[in-house]
Hints:
The protein has helices at 2-5, 33-45, 52-64, 76-86, 104-111, 130-136, 156-166, 220-227, 251-281, 316-325, 341-344, 354-362, 374-388, and strands spanning 69-73, 94-98, 115-119, 141-144, 169-173, 181-182, 185-186, 193-197, 210-214, 231-234, 237-240. It is built from 13 helices and eleven strands. The radius of gyration is 21 Å and the shape is globular. Helix 4 crosses helix 5 and helix 4 (76-86) packs across helix 8 (220-227). Residues 1-14 have low confidence and may be disordered. The protein is an alpha/beta fold. Pyridoxal-5'-phosphate is lined by residues 75-77, 101-102, 104-105, 147, 173, 175-176, 197, 199, 210.
Amino acid sequence: MTQRAHTHKAAEPNPPEGRHGAFLPFASPSIDAETVAAVANVLRSGWITSGPQVEAFEAALSGYLGGRTVRTFTSATGALEVALQICNIGPGDEVIVPAMTFAATANVVVRVGAKPVFVDVGLATRNIDIGQVEAAITPHTKAVMPVHFAGLPVDMDALYALAQQRGLRVIEDAAHAIGSSHCNRRIGSFGDLVAFSFHPNKNLTTIEGGALSIRDPAEVKRVERLRFHGIGHGDDGMDVIEAGGKYNLTDVAACVGLGQLRQLEQLNRRRRELAARYFERLQTNPPLQLPARGDEGHSWHMFAPLLPLEQLRFGRQDFIREMVAHGIGVGVHYPALHLFTLYRKMGYKAGDFPNAERIGRSTVTLPLYPALSEDDIDRVCAACVQVLLNRH
Length: 392
Ligand SMILES: *Cc1c(COP(=O)(O)O)cnc(C)c1O
């Protein structure tokens, strides 16, 4: 389900139209005609991989993030992995990660040879519980990786105060949070290392892509090296300093990103309006448990209430199937991470993180993307009412 939720399906035919109109997927990118035309120009230009568009996109992202240094990647996963390498995190080290997030957040810790130490999240916020972060710190802890879940910022003042006091690096998984703000400061305009995703489901897309916002200018050269084969420049031209990866964004993708960034504030404003409509209109019996509302700093990457499973005579798969029959796509973001085979093998088990597990069992992601109308949201709400009716 997670794989499906994270695979962009636009190239495949939509499921048959529901009885009530065109199929509404749970996520869909908004790419304007100007961007499409600009991409065609890049394709015709003769320079299609990393070049002037990447430079322009990184400069534009830097402008958007208050002048921070930003480097682009082929994915947030690549950016997170390089961030861990920048912090010299490897075998013997521990990194604190929420148990409710996409698999990439913890997988990258495993990939650099370190140990992900999970902690639970708030039931409504889905964000890492800072008290539990403090309790999970050991002499081996090197970093914390908060996730701004669904675009709702973690309390960064509290987290950075703790990190500073305990000498930890902070690698923010801001995959959901381009355009989110905490106390009027954009996520990625402050903080240590902040990674964004530009996957098609995210608030800004480059088809596939990501970026890293970097506080310490002294670390930028190494970020660039780890992004591209570990190549540096010696006295006699090219040199290889370390075994880097291959994560450079293409100019075609960067051109899509430039168009998206121009639209971002408007697209996120629309997401906020549509989320507000859900809060106003989504009244089922039995009631869904709605996510934390946050404030204007929430960028509403997703709208994911919890099913009241203990009050229902059917399961989540039945709910999803019936919503699809109404022409409405529903995602699952995410199953609790510590219960996947890889992490069970490390000793994690059911019961370790009750909130993450409850969310993992009962979360459903309803359609939320800028191209939806108020009527579409009302249709989703009406379908939820119908599907849950008499299922006590
Ligand atoms: C999408 C996502 C990622 C990975 O992003 P990619 O760009 O696909 O690598 C990482 N963490 C979270 C929380 C995500 O939702």
